[in-house]
Amino acid sequence: MTHLLAKAAGSLAAAALLVASAYAQAPAAGAGGPPVLASKLAPPKGGSSRLLVTSGSFSGGSDIDDRYTQNGDNMSPSLSWSKGPSGTQSYVVLVEDTGVNRPEPISHWVIYNIPSTTTSLPQNIPGDGTLENGAMQGKNIAQKVGYIGPKPPAGQTHPYHFQVFALNAKLQLDPATADRNAVVAAMKNKVLAAGDLVGSYTGK
Known about the structure:
The protein is an alpha+beta fold. It has 3 helices and 9 strands, in the order H-H-E-E-E-E-E-E-E-E-H-E. It has a single domain (2-202), classed as PEBP-like (Phosphatidylethanolamine-binding Protein), CATH 3.90.280.10. The protein has helices at residues 2-23, 37-40, 180-187, and strands at residues 49-50, 53-54, 79-81, 90-97, 106-115, 120-121, 136-137, 157-167, 191-202. It has a 6-stranded mixed sheet with strand order 1-9-8-4-5-7. A 3-stranded antiparallel sheet has the order 2-3-6, with no helix packed on it. It is globular and about 45 Å long. The relative contact order is 0.24.
C-alpha cells in the first residue's frame, strides 16, 4: 500500500512539474510562439467556411475573468459557434495557450465528437470523459480529462485560443489516449471549417 501511495504521489508531482515547466517558458521577443491550429489546418477540397465563435463569458480580444482560471473557480467558460457547412458530422473544441516558447501550444481543453446538432456549450462543463450529449473530453496538459484554466507566470500575458472545428466525420479514438495530439492527428483531412475566439490573461 505504501508503495502504491508513493507511486501515485510521484505521478501527481510529475504532472504538476510538467505544467509548471511548460508555463515557465514565455516566447522570446519576436519568437511568436507555436502556430495557431485554427489557421494552420487547411480544410479538405470543397470546405472553406469560417465558423464564428463567441462566448457569453468574455469578449474576443478581452481579458478572461479570474473565475475561468486556476486563480479563481477554474471552470470552463460558455462557448457558442455558427453552424458548420453541409456535411458537418461533428465538432471539435480545442483551447490552447500559444504564448509559450515551444513547438506546440499548451492544451487547456479537448472536446471531440460534439454532435453536429450542437452549437454551444454552457459554462462549468464537468470533468467527465463522456458528456450528456455524447461528446468526449480528452486530456489537457496536466493529463487530466476536462478543462484546466489559464495560469501563466506572474506578470506575463498569454493569448488563449478557443478554437472550434467542423468535421466531416466522427473521430474514432481510444478515450484512454485521447489528448490534444491524438485528436489533431485524427482530424487530418476532415476539417470543413474552423473558427477562433481569443482571450488573454495575465499571471498573478
